[in-house]
Design a protein that fits this description.
- The protein is mainly α.
- The chain contains 9 helices and no strands.
- The chain is globular, with a radius of gyration of 17 Å.
C-alpha cells in the first residue's frame, strides 16, 4: 500500500525502458514463462528503485497474477493488484488502464471475491479499452465477460447474445487468439 506514494519516475530513459518492457509483457508471456517473469521482475525493480510510471501500474497488476498462482501468495498478490488499480484511479497513471483493470479482474479478483466482482471490473476495463481504442484488450474483455457470465449462471439466452456480439467484435479487430477463444465459448453455449 505504501508503494502508492512512491514518487513518479523522472528519468526519461528509465521511463522509456519501463514503457517498452510493459508492452513486451504479453509477447513474453506467450513466448516463455521464464522470460515473462524476468521482464516482470525487472519492471517492478525499476519502479521500486526509481518511482512509478504508467507501466508500473501494469507491472504491479501482473505481479499480483504471478504471486498468487506461482508462489501461493494470494494475499500479497491481491495487494499488488489493488495497488495497480489505485495507481490508475488515484494517481492518474492510466495509460495502460484497460490492461491493469482487465488483469486485476481476470487474474486477481477471483481469488478473493465473488465472480460477479470480476465481471463488473471486466466491463469497466472494456469501457476504458473502447474509450482509448485499445481494440486488442477490448476484445479480451468482451470474451472474458462471457466467461464470468457463464460461471455466474446468468440466463443462457443473455449469455448467448453477448457471446455473439463479443465474437463479432473480435472478428472485426482481427485478433485470432480472441476469435478462437470466443468461438469456443459460443460453441459451448450452443
Amino acid at each position: 500500500e505504501s508503494l502508492l506514494d512512491l514518487p513518479l519516475m523522472t528519468d526519461p530513459n528509465r521511463a522509456a525502458t519501463v514503457d517498452v518492457l510493459s508492452l513486451f509483457t504479453t509477447p513474453a508471456y506467450f513466448a516463455s514463462k521464464r522470460l515473462y517473469a524476468l521482464v516482470l521482475f525487472q519492471l517492478v525493480l525499476l519502479s521500486l528503485e526509481h518511482g512509478n510510471t504508467d507501466g508500473s501500474a501494469l507491472a504491479y497488476s501482473l505481479l499480483g497474477n504471478v504471486l498468487g498462482p506461482q508462489f501461493g501468495d494470494y494475499h500479497d498478490g491481491y495487494r499488488f493488484g489493488r495497488l495497480s488499480v489505485d495507481l490508475v484511479e488515484k494517481r492518474g497513471l492510466d495509460r495502460f488502464a484497460a490492461r491493469v483493470l482487465m488483469v486485476f479482474a481476470t487474474n486477481v479478483i477471483p481469488w478473493t471475491s465473488h465472480l460477479r466482482a470480476s465481471h463488473a471490473m471486466t466491463k469497466k476495463a472494456l469501457d476504458v479499452a473502447l474509450a482509448v481504442d485499445d481494440l486488442t484488450y477490448a476484445s479480451y474483455c468482451g470474451c472474458f465477460a462471457i466467461t464470468y457470465q457463464l460461471a455466474c449462471g446468468d440466463p443462457l439466452g443473455d449469455v448467448h447474445r453477448a457471446a455473439e456480439s463479443a465474437l463479432e467484435f473480435a472478428r472485426k479487430t482481427g485478433y485470432g487468439f480472441v476469435v478462437d477463444y470466443g468461438t469456443a465459448q459460443l460453441r459451448l453455449i450452443r
